[in-house]
């Protein structure tokens, strides 16, 4: 599974980094989220899906 954050959609709500800090961080500059790695380890796939569901902007793209 791959993950990325769409910077156009992300509004910096922080929910993803609270739900899955192993997968997401927030940039100091603009407060927007980024994925630590484009590749989601198998054991974190459920968390990635949960974070994507919880993002109010649907900015987390899984593929
Ligand atoms: S929950 Fe969504 S909008 Fe909020 S910081 Fe994460 S990716 Fe951005």
Please give the structural blueprint:
Blueprint: E1 3-5, H1 15-19, E2 24-26, E3 33-35, H2 45-54, E4 60-62
Antiparallel strand pairs: 1-4, 2-3
The structure holds iron/sulfur cluster (SF4).
CATH class: Alpha Beta
Give the structural class.
Answer: alpha+beta
Inertia-based shape: globular
- The counted number of beta strands is 4
Give the second-level CATH assignment, the architecture.
Answer: 2-Layer Sandwich
Report helical residue fraction. Answer: 10-25%
Report the sheet-strand fraction.
15-25%
First-residue to last-residue Cα separation = 6 Å
Bound molecules: iron/sulfur cluster
Structure characteristics:
63 residues; Alpha-Beta Plaits; two-stranded antiparallel sheet; 2 helices
Please explain how this structure is put together:
Helices cover 24% and strands 19% of the residues. It has a single domain (3-62), classed as 2-Layer Sandwich (Alpha-Beta Plaits). By secondary structure, the chain is of the alpha+beta class. A two-stranded antiparallel sheet has the order 1-4. Strands 2-3 form a two-stranded antiparallel sheet. Bound molecules: iron/sulfur cluster (SF4).
Question: Could you provide a short overview of the structure?
Answer:
The mean pLDDT is 97. By secondary structure, the chain is α+β, with helices and mostly antiparallel strands. The protein is built from two helices and four strands, in the order E-H-E-E-H-E.
